From TrEMBL, chain A:
<keyword id="KW-0539">Nucleus</keyword>
<dbReference type="Pfam" id="PF17406">
    <property type="entry name" value="Nrap_D5"/>
</dbReference>
<comment type="function">
    <text>Part of the small subunit (SSU) processome, first precursor of the small eukaryotic ribosomal subunit. During the assembly of the SSU processome in the nucleolus, many ribosome biogenesis factors, an RNA chaperone and ribosomal proteins associate with the nascent pre-rRNA and work in concert to generate RNA folding, modifications, rearrangements and cleavage as well as targeted degradation of pre-ribosomal RNA by the RNA exosome.</text>
</comment>
<dbReference type="InterPro" id="IPR035370">
    <property type="entry name" value="Nrap_D5"/>
</dbReference>
<feature type="domain" description="Nrap protein">
    <location>
        <begin position="468"/>
        <end position="627"/>
    </location>
</feature>
<keyword id="KW-0158">Chromosome</keyword>
<dbReference type="GO" id="GO:0006409">
    <property type="term" value="P:tRNA export from nucleus"/>
</dbReference>
<feature type="domain" description="Nrap protein">
    <location>
        <begin position="178"/>
        <end position="317"/>
    </location>
</feature>
<dbReference type="InterPro" id="IPR035371">
    <property type="entry name" value="Nrap_D6"/>
</dbReference>
UniProtKB/TrEMBL annotation, chain B:
<dbReference type="GO" id="GO:0005654">
    <property type="term" value="C:nucleoplasm"/>
</dbReference>
<dbReference type="GO" id="GO:0032545">
    <property type="term" value="C:CURI complex"/>
</dbReference>
<protein>
    <submittedName>
        <fullName>Ribosomal RNA processing 7 homolog A</fullName>
    </submittedName>
</protein>
<dbReference type="Pfam" id="PF12923">
    <property type="entry name" value="RRP7"/>
</dbReference>
<dbReference type="GO" id="GO:0005813">
    <property type="term" value="C:centrosome"/>
</dbReference>
<feature type="compositionally biased region" description="Basic residues">
    <location>
        <begin position="1"/>
        <end position="11"/>
    </location>
</feature>
<dbReference type="GO" id="GO:0061523">
    <property type="term" value="P:cilium disassembly"/>
</dbReference>
<feature type="region of interest" description="Disordered">
    <location>
        <begin position="266"/>
        <end position="288"/>
    </location>
</feature>
<comment type="similarity">
    <text>Belongs to the RRP7 family.</text>
</comment>
């Protein structure tokens, strides 16, 4: 391998996964940059910006060595790309155990081995007589029922061997575990020990005695019990070295029976080894019904017997094939990022190793393959096969005495037999877990095939915790409730099989129940696996109810969510009874339009928000009906954040309906505009530009019905005016629509009858179209547009009776209580504004601020609005996510720095590029991913590409990236690229500044863990608004405002209990006067403050009912400046060292704050002394 | 030289409206420009009337101008339309107070003490009251707007018509030096004078010239190009010393041994005599 970039090597050594992530990102980006093009960035290198490595001419053109050529050839044949190879190698270097540590671990293992073999033996006792155990140790097993036949004595193990991934070299950091099998001597065991948990009791006692002796030893820092893979019949002993190596390694001791002690035919899945008579303390019903089979119990015994044979198998397969080992390590990382490998029934690293062995045996994987190819093949296999229907087996012999796969399918949901043909490796894996693995594998395969994204980063470096991966999450708490559920569901055989683990028993029954009930609403149901607990040897093992909570994750199907009806079979069909039985009292007979009479369930949900929460109703209903779990035990986390985007008075809806009503009204208006008669030019397009029209306005507008007594009247202009003696009236924001004019398509017959002014501007527009001389006059165009606005208002008034108010730049139209602001646009106007005439008379095109602004408003904004409107039709959750995101940013007082459009685009990216997730279907999960994206995206070195309508091809995206890198220093800090705007990132040109973006990133990184913890807390989330409250301690000055003059006071995060009347009627009534538009005193005040003191301080405010303006002094402005006439704003003269300098006059400025906002400002608090100069 | 006297805020009579600060500028030389202007520095809420009231004790005030930036000359401003030039958000501004007599300026320079901007008899609106009155002002009469647009467009039309008539009159008529102005409107329209058009022309010209230049005409030229290429880097496929260039070997891009595989510029025998506009550029040796 050639010399890696210096930076990457320096960073590569750190052991923490987080650090690793950064380092890898670094290498990745550098590589990409270099492969794109060799170029030098102009200007001084900005810190943190990745620069190509400078190499001398000689280095650059050195002949490649043989080794390098070999690697090139290898990369070509074994990897997707050379970048991927680098990334994979870097990752493996991170997760591999270094040789140095291996030596230390080996030494420790030898010590353990000696000490275990030296543990003294004890005399023989009855199993039930446990008085011989010393006081400091408890049996790590729930002995229910206690009485059991048999004797026990401790004898030193006959053999101690290392098994598992450590031996194979496939263990991954962090949490290095070494599994040791401790073979119990044959003398301890008796015949029929396989029956009635006798073997497990002996195993537990064996461990207890071992634990007692080892805990005396100073070699060990800690001696704990734990469960092997979470199976609570099989404790294991955890040993950690003392001293600085404490976190180096955990040695797990697993006692196991001598080889061939149990006969495998007694442990077939159809056999019973736990007698009902013993377990339930009663004889089975006398009618001779057979004992229920105990497949899981049998498997656990079998697992202990095959520890060594498995490790032998794996070592022969993986043996010297480094690619396979790499592949297994990658698969383990993949599973760990998805939290699939932990707990009882997890898809553990051992399982994937066996899967790789299986794929080798079926020749799907070859030993010469690279790690990446192994990962790919394994994922491909997982994605395309269904082990719940067609199990697989490592067993090659065709012995007729072996059990058939079908027998296993009857007993277990997922079947993967080992080489002996008796043991199902996937016995504990539930169908849901397996489906989740399949789902992830499918997503990953799609990602690997897509080529567009940085697949490695998304596949192996992005964690997918449950709360961020699933749309809705529900916690069952307390778990003891599940015991009753087991009784209700009649799960005694399962309990007998699982040794009383009612959580697993109930889980097996509840997931199919919920899956059936949620039906078409559900895409995937996943459950958390009980975590593997550790406890001190002097304590009793944790009870089942203490194993945390059971969390279910629902991945919803957005198209199924909208239906409120669960259609059942026709009433006279035999299936109707089943349907009634399943839904209980919720099932009712209904007659449908086609005459059919059917069973059906109807859920109450009027608004979109309620429909999204129908799964909540379904789950609580089914759990109460079938499992006797009351709704107080079901903590459903799905709509907790909805409260933040509900309008103050409407609590049943999150505003999608109100937005749709506004959009409908807009559609009506645009139809009116299209059909307007008497305009000298025809309308070529009516386009919306306001956030409402793309469903992303945080609080949707409501139709206004002003109470006239509340206002002054301006009779001759039919307008209402605010009154100083009343509280500030409700805020009405006009929605902007654009209406570009089209070329002359008039009807010539009626144009002649127009009045003079219409004829005039008709003429002028024609001139503009036809002549090369006139369009240079922007002033004339403005006049023409003004005349058009007037005419438009007149016509709308005449023909449709709409109240209008025309100004030079826009026309406000009042329709059905909504106010629209129509701006007439002329498509060549930006072009004309751009024209510059040089002194020689040469005309050149240069972007001017006015032309950029106009183009943004009349071209980009309508395009964006229609694209996002389309996105909302595809993904109904888009609106909710975008509004929550905006709400959060504004609540953190950063709304001014980030434009609405840029936030909308970031949210759109969550839907268009959801990898490695699926597009969010609920606002909650979308918001969490928004926070994650904001806090982790590398804005400095990457553009955020939002591929609206999938218009950008892979090549174009690569081109955009290289263009971005070349022009990085000229671009804004946050670059968002869309198909319409590939270079300039128009929506982030004016902000945020680097400081604001940094603050946003920090806040998001803080908020995400807090919110996730709250949502994952089964006791209830506590105060969900915590992350929406801004930290105020960072501001130098706080300006407190009087709620009386804050028109949107009720929208505040902590909604006030009482606020002021805002002059609106509650009942509908005719409204003929133009309401007060866009009058928001805090915003007017802020505009004044920013204009007057913008170069001295930054002002922060939450436009949704904030009562505080935060002021932050700019440190640079407090430098004394030379005395200059143009430099005197808010400063005073001071003599310093005989020279006159200007410094800010802070006292006077604070006074000005109060004077400027007279009536609005309650108090001005100076909080820090930082401003003293 | 400029000096500055800062006045401190003074509260007016108890119970009355608070006095506003007024930072005041004065110029040592006394008068600026016309000799009757005095410059004051304005806090955001001060109005023209207020300033003329404050300075009236120094002498009769002729006018007060508010500007965003200090401006030395007297630049006559075009009257602004209240419809088309939106009033900017008030910030700090500079005021020029023009006195009727120069004595006013000298009196203003020695004016002492803080000046109270807002008094009971002459309150200056700020805060809520100001915003409400601004809102009221922003509701304009559409009829006035219509009249303004009409007058503007009439004048504009007239001007355009005049210019057009004049252009038509002058068309084809040589001026005193004998030049004829050619416009697009003439019988033989010319190219528009835009940057894009001129760039296009230049590019075309460049291509034409490049085509005519002979590169490998003589043996020595040929040899030189060969020599140059020898020192040049090898084909890009063979320089993978970057770790990120480990990818598939680039397509072989020709060899580096000779120039035969390189695309050759079209060879053309030089035509005799000056060809085209600029002729062929030939090495001198041809003639020696």
């Amino acid at each position: 391998m050639g010399p890696a970039p210096a930076g990457a090597q320096d960073r590569g050594g750190a052991g923490e996964p987080e650090v690793m992530e950064l380092a890898l990102e670094g290498t990745g980006k550098e590589g990409k940059k270099e492969s794109s093009k060799k170029h030098t960035l102009s200007g001084s290198p900005v810190e943190g910006l990745l620069q190509p490595v400078k190499l001398s001419q000689a280095e650059l053109y050195k002949e490649p060595t043989n080794e390098e050529l070999n690697r090139l050839r290898e990369t070509e044949s074994l990897f997707h790309s050379s970048l991927l190879r680098l990334q994979v190698e870097e990752l493996l270097k991170e997760v591999r155990l270094p040789e140095k540590k291996k030596e230390r671990i080996d030494a420790f293992l030898r010590e353990v081995n000696q000490r275990v073999l030296r543990v003294p033996s004890t005399p023989k006792r009855e199993l039930t007589d446990q008085t011989w155990l010393p006081a400091g140790v408890r049996v790590p097993l729930h002995q229910v029922p206690y009485t059991v036949k048999g004797c026990f004595c401790f004898l030193p193990p006959s053999q101690v061997t290392v098994v598992g991934s450590y031996l194979l070299g496939t263990c991954v950091r962090p949490d290095i575990n070494v599994d040791m099998a401790v073979t119990m001597p044959r003398e301890i065991l008796q015949d029929k020990d396989g029956l009635n948990q006798r073997y497990f009791r002996k195993r537990a006692l064996y461990l207890a005695h071992l634990a007692h002796h080892l805990s005396q030893d100073p070699l060990f820092g800690s001696v704990h019990f734990s469960y092997t893979n979470g199976c609570h019949l099989k404790p294991s002993l955890l040993l950690r070295p003392r001293g600085k190596d404490e976190r180096l390694v955990t040695v797990r001791l697993h006692p196991c029976p001598p080889p061939d002690f149990f006969r495998p035919c007694r442990l077939l899945p159809s056999k019973n080894n736990v007698r009902s008579a013993w377990y339930r303390g009663q004889s089975p019903p006398g009618d001779g019904s057979p004992e229920p089979p105990t497949p899981h119990y049998n498997t656990w015994v079998l697992q202990d017997m095959t520890l060594e044979s498995h490790v032998q198998l794996l070592s022969t397969v993986l043996g010297s094939a480094f690619g396979l080992k790499d592949g297994v390590a990658l698969l383990k990382v993949w599973l760990r990022q998805r939290e699939l490998d932990k707990g009882l029934g997890g898809f553990s690293g051992f399982l994937v190793s066996m899967l790789v062995a299986f794929l080798v045996s079926t020749r799907k994987i070859h030993t010469t393959m690279s790690g990446y190819q192994v990962l790919r093949s394994a994922l491909q296999f997982l994605a395309t096969t269904d082990l719940t229907v067609n199990g697989i087996s490592l067993c090659l012999s065709s012995d007729p005495s072996l059990p058939a796969l079908a027998d296993f399918h009857q007993a277990f949901p997922v079947v993967f037999l080992d080489s002996s043909g008796y043991l199902n490796l996937c016995a504990d894996v539930t169908a849901s877990t397996y489906h989740q693995v399949q789902h992830e594998a499918r997503l990953s395969m799609a990602l690997l095939d897509s080529r567009t994204d940085d697949g490695f980063q998304l596949l192996l470096m992005t964690p997918k915790p449950m709360i961020r991966a699933f749309d809705h999450v529900l916690h069952l708490h307390p778990l003891s409730r599940l015991q009753a559920a087991c009784h209700r569901l009649k799960l005694w055989p399962e309990l007998q099989d699982l040794g009383g683990d009612y959580v697993s028993a109930a889980l097996g029954a509840l997931t199919p129940l919920l899956e059936q009930g949620l039906g078409s609403r559900l895409h995937l149901l996943a459950h958390s696996r009980p975590p593997v607990s550790e406890w001190d040897i002097s304590q009793d093992p944790p009870k089942h109810r203490d194993s945390g909570t059971l969390t279910l994750g629902l991945l919803l199907r957005p198209e199924g969510l909208t239906s409120v009806l669960e259609l059942g079979p026709e009433a006279n069909q035999p299936e109707a009874a089943d349907f009634r039985q399943f839904w209980g009292s919720r099932s009712e007979l209904r007659r449908f339009q086609d005459g059919a009479i059917r069973e059906a369930v109807v859920w109450e949900a009027a608004s979109m928000a309620q429909k999204r929460l129908i799964p909540h109703q379904v789950v609580t209903h089914l759990l109460a009906l079938h499992a006797n779990i009351p709704d107080t035990c079901v903590h459903y986390v799905g709509g907790l954040l909805d409260a933040l985007i509900q309008s103050p008075k409407e609590t049943s809806s999150t505003g999608e309906e109100a937005l749709a009503a506004a959009v409908r009204c807009y559609d009506d208006l645009s139809r009116l505009l299209w059909g307007l008669e008497g305009l000298p030019l025809t309308v070529s397009a009516v386009q919306g530009a306001h956030p409402v029209l793309r469903y992303t306005e945080v609080f949707p507008p409501t139709p206004v019905r002003p109470a006239y007594s509340f206002y002054e009247h301006l009779r001759d202009r039919a307008s209402l005016l605010p009154r100083p003696d009343k509280p500030c009236p409700a805020y009405v924001e006009p929605m902007t629509g654009e209406e570009p004019l089209r070329k002359d398509e008039r009807n010539p017959s009626h144009s002649m009858s127009q009045s003079r002014d219409l004829l005039l501007f008709f003429l002028v527009v024609c001139h503009l179209e036809g002549s090369g001389q006139w369009p240079q006059d922007a002033e004339a165009i403005r006049r023409v547009r003004a005349a058009f606005q007037l005419r438009l208002a007149e016509l709308l008034m005449q023909q449709h009776g709409l109240r209008c108010r025309a100004t030079a730049t826009h026309t406000d139209v009042l329709k059905d209580g909504f106010v629209f602001r129509i701006r007439v646009a002329y498509q060549r106007e930006p072009q004309i504004l751009r024209e510059m005439r040089s002194p020689e008379g040469m005309i050149s095109l240069r972007d001017t601020p006015a032309s950029i602004h106009l183009e943004r408003d009349t071209r980009h904004l309508p395009l964006l609005t229609s694209a996002l409107h389309g996105l909302q039709q595809q993904h109904p959750a888009f609106s909710g996510v975008a509004r929550l995101a905006k709400r959060w940013v504004r609540a953190q007082l950063l709304g001014e720095g980030l434009s609405d459009e840029s936030l909308d685009l970031v949210v759109a990216a969550l839907f268009l590029h959801p990898e490695p997730f699926t597009p969010p279907s609920s606002p909650q999960v979308g918001f969490l991913r928004f926070l994650f994206l904001i806090s982790t995206f590398d804005w400095r070195n990457n553009p955020l590409i939002v591929n609206l309508n999938n218009e950008l091809t892979v090549e174009e995206q690569a081109e955009i990236r290289s263009g971005f890198l070349a022009a990085r220093t000229q671009l804004p800090v946050m670059v968002i690229v869309t198909p319409q705007d590939r270079k300039n990132s128009v929506w982030t040109q004016d902000g945020p500044s680097p400081q604001i973006l940094q603050q946003l990133v920090v806040l998001a990184a803080e908020a995400l863990p807090v919110l996730e913890k709250q949502l994952m807390d089964p006791q209830g989330p506590g105060d969900i608004r915590t992350v929406f409250r801004p930290p105020l301690d960072m501001y130098d000055v706080l300006i407190r405002l009087s709620p009386r003059h804050i028109p949107r006071h009720r929208q505040a995060v902590d909604s006030p209990a009482a606020s002021f009347c805002r002059g609106l009627l509650s009942e509908p009534g005719p409204c003929s006067l133009m309401p007060v538009l866009g009058y928001d005193p805090p915003q007017l005040y802020l505009a004044q403050l920013r204009e007057a003191f913008g170069d001295l301080a930054l002002f922060f405010y939450d436009q949704h009912g904030g009562e505080v303006i935060g002021v932050l002094w700019k440190p640079t402005s407090f430098q004394p400046q030379p005395f200059k006439a143009s430099n005197t704003k808010g400063r005073m003269v001071m003599s310093r060292g005989g020279e006159l300098v200007m410094v800010p006059n802070v006292e006077a400025i604070l006074e000005d704050f109060a004077i400027l906002g007279e009536g609005l400002v309650q108090a001005v608090e100076a909080r820090s002394e930082r401003w003293t100069v | 030289m400029e000096t500055r006297a800062r006045s401190r805020r003074r509260t007016a009579t108890p119970g009355g409206p608070r006095g506003f600060r007024l930072a005041r500028w004065r110029r040592a030389g006394g008068s600026v420009g016309r000799g009757t202007r005095s410059r004051g520095f304005r806090a955001p809420q001060v109005t023209q009337e207020c300033l003329s009231r404050l300075f009236s004790p120094c002498g009769a005030v002729q006018s007060v101008e508010l500007q965003e930036k200090p401006d030395l000359g007297d630049s006559p401003k075009e009257p602004k339309s209240k419809f088309f030039d939106p009033t900017p958000v008030p910030g700090f501004q500079v005021a020029y107070v023009v006195f009727q007599k120069p004595a006013g300026v000298s009196a203003a320079i020695v004016l002492k003490g803080p000046l109270v901007v807002s008094t009971e008899s002459h309150p200056v609106k700020s805060g809520i009251h100001k915003w409400i009155s601004n809102y009221v002002d922003s509701v304009l009469d559409p009829e006035t707007l219509r009249v303004e647009v009409d007058t503007f467009m009439e004048a504009y039309d007239k001007r355009i018509a005049e210019e057009e008539a004049k252009a038509k009159e002058e068309e084809g008529v040589p001026d005193e030096e004998g030049w004829v102005k050619v416009t697009r409107r003439g019988r033989r329209p010319v190219l528009p004078r835009t940057e894009a058009a001129s760039l296009r022309v230049l590019e075309k010209e460049r291509q034409k010239r490049a085509r005519k230049e002979l590169l490998n005409f003589y043996a020595w030229q040929h040899r030189e190009t060969k020599m140059e290429r020898k020192g040049a880097p090898p084909a890009p496929g063979l320089q993978p010393h970057f770790p990120w260039r480990l990818g598939p070997v680039h397509e072989a891009q020709g060899c580096c041994c000779c120039c035969r595989c390189q695309p050759q510029p079209e060879r053309r025998a030089p035509r005799g005599g000056p060809g085209g506009v600029l002729g062929h550029r030939l090495p001198d040796r041809l003639w020696s």
